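Structure ticket #2291
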Amino acid sequence: MEAIVLAAGKGTRLKPLTCNRPKPLLEVGGRPILDRIVDELLQLNEITQIRIVVHANKEMVIKHIEKQFTEQLNRIAFVDQPEPLGTGNAVKVAAEGIDEDFAVVFGDLVFDRGFINGAVKKFNELKKEGIEALGTGALVDDLTKYGVFRVGKRGEAMDIVEKPEPHMIEEGMLANAGFFILPKETVQYLSKLKKTERGEYELTDAIKETIQNHKFYVHQIKGKWFDIGYPWLLLEANQYLLENEADFFEILGDVEPDVKVHGKIHVARGARIRSGVYIEGVAYFDEGADIGPNCYIRGASYFGRNTRVGNACEVKNSIIYASTHAAHLSYIGDSILGENSNLGAGTITANLRHDNQPVKVTVKGKRISSGRRKLGVIMGDDVKTGIGVSILPGVVMGCSARINAGQIVNRDVNH
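Resolution: structure written out below.
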């Protein structure tokens, strides 16, 4: 069985974090999203070949995978989607020449280990009973944000609906969890797809026809699952992975005397934790990270390669990507900071509204609720703030934004 990984999208809802990199390469829990997916597929003997569909920043994706999976490249191929014409077109392009069952997985998923393995195992069991296709479903609080399976009493798929209205929701519906095993006939359905109003070809339409013509089972997944469609979901997935995947926590770098640790930490080779640093919770310090002296780390936080967090700084439940610096006297709370940015002394990120209501964020020009009571700044790459800058909750700062000293930032910048 071959597997198709959809990694061609731009990730527009995740801007500005995706201005200079594709969504699948965003780190979460210490690893890029795509690495986790490819790694799990490679562990399955049933998967003979992985076809990774690329388009946006394709050279970056190809170079990264070739570096990370050098010894397994004989099982990996890259398929260029010439135009961004939707998930249906991406699978159609990648599935050319396939004449057997094949798997499809979205390239922006974060899940418990064993998610794909469990679905493949279930399909192999049910295939003996005549099941010809399998999709994965997840229980979520708000089904209106997802493609949704209508599921029968025995787990059979009755239909799939894209982002249903609230009045369309029925008991037993499951969100499409983004992993499928499809019969070869689905390739024919893909070739018949018609463009949607958005000018794209949707995989959902081919899945719908597969359900109508084949015995299609929906496997309800166990454990946690994240569809990384919005920036704050990176924080949720990061926290979950750091708190629940303890086996990769080790200290390989330099931890100086008088560092206090109350929780699990990973200190990569070349990372340095200076004296006086107090850590509560879980934290991942990547290669070259330089932390302290005398700062406070709490919650679940990721510090990317060559990050610098210095004297009298506090970081809480945040993601700080590569080569970003907060040298002194700053507070970073429930925030995501892009690469190569610099916070001037005294930069403070507020993360709580006075009315305690969920923080709202602008996504693709619309203000939507994050559902989070605490959320700080979402910052792109190459941002610089002057001394004494205060940033209000939910502010989005686009790449290369410049903030003068003493400013209160209460509106999005360059977004």
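Closing remark: The longest helix spans residues 231-244.
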